[in-house]
Fold these 4 entries.
Entry 1:
Amino acid sequence: MEERLLKVRMQNFTYQNAVKIVFGKDSIAQLPELLPQNLKIMITYGGGSIKKNGVYDQVVKALKGFDFVEFGGIEANPQFETCMKAVEIIKKENVSFLLAVGGGSVLDGTKFIAAAVEYKGDAWDIPTGKVTVETALPLASIMTLPATGSEMNGNSVISRKEIGEKRAFASEFVYPKFSILDPVTTFSLPKRQTVNGIVDTFVHVCEQYMTYDVNTPLQDRQAEAILHTVIEEAPKVLKDPNDYDARANIMWSATHGLNLAISCGVVMDWSTHMIGHELTAAFGLDHGKSLAVIMPSVFRYKADKKGDKLVQYANRIWGITEGSKEEIIEKAVVKTVEFFESIGMKTKLSDYGIEVKDCKNIPAVFEKRGVVLGEHSDIKPQDVDKIIAMSA
């Protein structure tokens, strides 16, 4: 009896999230009250879209009287080499505070920069997990692309082109001091980025939810609330990109998708993300696209272990109640694929001109690292190979 109870008992957890969220229209104007005084600031951003949509002008206006420098060019998959250039400037200019303006990739890169500045060794040790981050420059963010939830967590993903790797790290020291979320800044997002963000949010929730029951009804229903909201609001955003209410709901859903509240006490997966990262590293595939390709195959491949949660997902999210357990699960996977496709997200490797034979090196990456995936740590390199084959 005791053994059975342990299998369904909420896991022990410690949760702390001190990120101050400033949400709503015109909230960038609050920057002067939020930023520390008398510190030199570095603004980090990406390819320059913030200069086209007016966000840059709002930031500069708000920073009148502050001492700041700029660093642009952080990629959609932030590159180690680019971030290290920022590290050099920070040291030269004696920068003491970082302000990331853009999407999750800009913030991920900025988090790495904040940690790398303070680390004395090879900074690649940070995302590869060879060291634990013990200090970092303080940072904050102005988010313009809802997707990663990076504005309210300590996670970061960094790529290194010269060796073709994409690695992640997490640290309490790179939580933003505050994050400004103005839905208006997302109005001008291209459809591709909007859709990528919607899928990223959806999959973040599934990675924390679609495992097995450990008696967390509150966390389950919080996760389901995010999924329902994304499913309901996504068509509205695509129909009218200037729909403030829909944009606001998508933005707040993305934040809650990975501020780690729904992960408290649950068992998580993250195999879809780990395999997806390797597709991005190998082929330059957008992060959201890689997730949409892999997650349905993970569900099908691990239906025996995820079965009860998949049935719950089918019942509560899609209203599927009839049929055998296997039929209900398959219907739920099909509905997930149909949702992705309905918002313009393709779900097969072949849709992106990628053949399974070209992915043969990906399982070897996990084998080399000695990494097994999944909530049961039972997705081995040979299983990754099969999951990829199912995603053709």
Entry 2:
Amino acid sequence: MKGFVPTPHETVDAMVELLFRSRLPHSDDTVLDPGCGTGEFIDGIIRWCERQGLALPRITGVESDERHLPVLRAKYGRLSQVRIRHADFLTDDRAKYDFIVGNPPYVAITGLSESEKARYRARYASARGRFDLYILFFEQALRSLAPSGQLVFITPEKYLYVDTAGPLRDLLARYHIEKIHLVREDTFAELVTYPTITVVRNAPPGRTQVRRRDGGQVTVELPLGRDSWLPLLEGSAPQQAAVTLGDVCLRVSCGVATGADNVFVRPADGLDPGLRRFARPTVAGRQLTPETTDIPQRFVMLTPYNRDGRLLPFERLGALGRYLMHDDVRERLLARTCVQRKPWYAFHETPALREILRPKILCKDICERPQFWVDRSGDVVPRHSVYYIVPRDPATIDVIARYLQSPAAHQWLAQNCQRASKGFLRLQSRVLKRLPLPDDVVRAVSDGRASAHLESPPRQMELAFHAVSPR
């Protein structure tokens, strides 16, 4: 049952209350649940009308999964005001409805067939990049909303800030988004989605009331365009900067993905002497802890590549080649999908060693609070759970690292990074690259005087975590 997650009754009731808050429904009004599952929202509308002593409006539930149909027909077969349609809402005719409510399916692009991807991309402006089905449900629901109609959806919060949802934000901002409510992380029990209830009226844009998870509230005017809304929702104006971290760096990227760390990553102690010329110190995110003062170098990565990132011919690998030819080792390498397009002993992704083997700043991909470590030697090869930041001019590494530990940088990261489980931040290269740099940092980097006029920071660049959201 692709993307089906039942919505808790208390959440359904709160959303139905929002649906009818501005206008009571009449018996000839139309209501749509575009992915009705087993009827949680239809039940909620029935409960609400019974409490209010009102007649049911005309309710349509659209469901594409035929396994739900027996339940739906048994529940509503005798209700003349409820109609169940077995159809795909995303390819259905565009009827208009006075009210739309629901919990669209959450299905990432990886869960779709190639034909589905092509069909949706041809039909939806929001089907761009690595889109999710709930984004398309938003667009189709807006098409289906009658003038002055009301839409209430619960979805992941990511549409508020991820690049993929930029076209959807631009579309939504042309309507009146009345309310954005960031609800409890545990709303769907063990499923971590950071759920968000969005209330939209088919009317000219107006001010939006935002309720955050910490209980804070703010009223904002959402801009047209594809920019992230997260800074505004946190109560801050978006920062426009002429120069960003990406502008002053040669590379900001995720670390090396070998596709077989259990083969290529070995303990540094006791390493076969014949393998040492292929070994480079490496670090994973789990090794970078708040207590870490230096970059751990307990492990090495065996790299069948030269310093330019070119794969060495197998006959030049010597001891490394003999190690990789062991039956159990070779079997693990051949099981990787990447061998369909590259030599069997290559990494899953070609390492950018020319940039990696330079002085750089490291950080974990997921963290409770951002922390940064400086690799001055440039010898460390970060693994895929570590991001690396390579300044264009190595002399500027300290000024960049110092800014990354500042409250201003932390506030920006907290307002622009995706959330992982338990409120942790997900640091990603596309977000780090957009980090705006203040004028004094830009001047220092431009002059190449970073180390000369700033105190040298410690090797561990830890950001103190502060409550930076406006109250």
Entry 3:
Amino acid sequence: MTAPRIGVIGGGQLARMMQPAAINLGIHLRVLAQSPTDSAAQVIPDTVLGAHDDLAALKAFAAECDIVTFDHEHVPTEYLVELQEMGVQVRPGPHALQYAQDKLDMRAKLSQAGIPCPEWAEITSDADLDRFSAIVGYPLVLKTARGGYDGKGVWVVDDRDEALRVIKEIVASNTRVLAEELVPFTRELAAQVARSPQGQCVAYPVVQSLQTNGICHEVISPAPNLSDERATSAQEIAIKIAAALDVTGMLAVELFDTGERIVVNELAMRPHNSGHWSMDGAVTSQFENHLRAIADWPLGSPAAKAPLSIMVNLLGGDLGDLHLAFRHVMARDPQIKVHLYGKDVRPGRKIGHVNLIGSNIDDLKERAWHAANYLTGVIDE
């Protein structure tokens, strides 16, 4: 068996973190990046410069690959069909990826498949808004159907006038408008699965995530105080979605937990922030299983190495050079694992994360947050 040449479209940190797994598996990884300073371009020697929405660049890049996968979901679907027509395996395929690209398409498909979702509607007129608000009331949530991430493209509106202003803004950006009920969730969960073209599927422990300004900041695996029955239900939802959409590779299903029900918030068909804990806390990381899945190799065990894992994202702050803080963090806690993305520091930007495994949640949270806060300059002792 010859290892496939795998191309990753997008040069962000997800592509960067695929490289160690690719090296261990003997896979030649190449990346299509916009700049030689992109996160992945710094560590993957076979880097091609080009834009993800430039068809000629995509074709030239894919011509040297056996399989193409993604660091993000923003490649135009019609371009991916053209890559398939060239004989390149696109995984996940455009038939699946469209549901991660367009939230309205996703809501319609999941509702059709019987997957629990918030109440939702497409808004094309003032009358649509009035009908929907009469059902769910205010406040309600408005989203751009395409292009939003990390809290961008999402608004909570308190009344009709505010809703109409936001809808006008969304329409001006040339995308459709999705309205949803404001789910009274008590916490956010995520269920991740890896699925191969043959349908083999493995499920990771369900995790709890904490957001700061719409950006994932902390992940605990497994989710504390989640019964086995509810955890299994969340995993079954993710497995059902992966099969219904014919996903190949990693699928992350972001969930709202209301205490009484679990409903789907968002989908990502790639490695995901909620799975970074698996780099140090699982038998097989999400990055390795993504590569194994798209190569159609048997999947690795997603089992946890320890009773608990915690990941805390490093969000850019006042400290420009994170390495200045390494000596203190490493000396204070040799078990901390630091993963940096090679990015310039900007306020609120994801520039890395720390992982820690153990058995006492309070101890893990104190240690992981101390390391993250020291690395980003929030504290200095």
Entry 4:
Amino acid sequence: MKNTKLIQTLKTFTKDELKLFEKFVASPYFNNGRNCLPFLKELEKHYPYFEDLKDKLTPEAIYKKLYPGKIFNKQVMWNQVSQLEKLALEFLLQTAFKNNKTGRFSMIFNELSKRNLDKVILKEIDNADKYISTVKLGEEYYSLKWIVEINRSDYWNSVQGRQDKSFEGTVKSTELLILKFLADLSVQVWDLNILK
């Protein structure tokens, strides 16, 4: 079992991430009816190296702990491993999403816009502006500014019917898109020079 994708993924988790992952696995929102928590707790006993000392990390040994007195069922263990692998990948995705402010703002603006939650969009634009003031000039800065200007422009056009303000926002967002492109291009040119 120690060479499975699941174990290789769990090896990369810090102690704090493993604790968060345990909460994640316990959450019914992500867990589709299968209770993988006991399985995870058995695996955690072998953290961080997941070495198979005295055959304690074999599917049979873990099955025996999870289902005392029952005959080993390979399919049940395979299902547990498969489900926990999926949850581990989803956890990594959620962690990455949480840390990616640009993606978060983009997606929240998109969702709010679909639901016509215009007042909430304005509040999120303010939140994004506050966050942007803490970011250094670069790809993230221009990406966020661009996303904010597009949404500000949409707000003025669709909600307020102010095409003049919408036009200003469109011009600003176009300028920011060009600046974002130039920032990205400069990084790529720098990388090319380094690799040369």
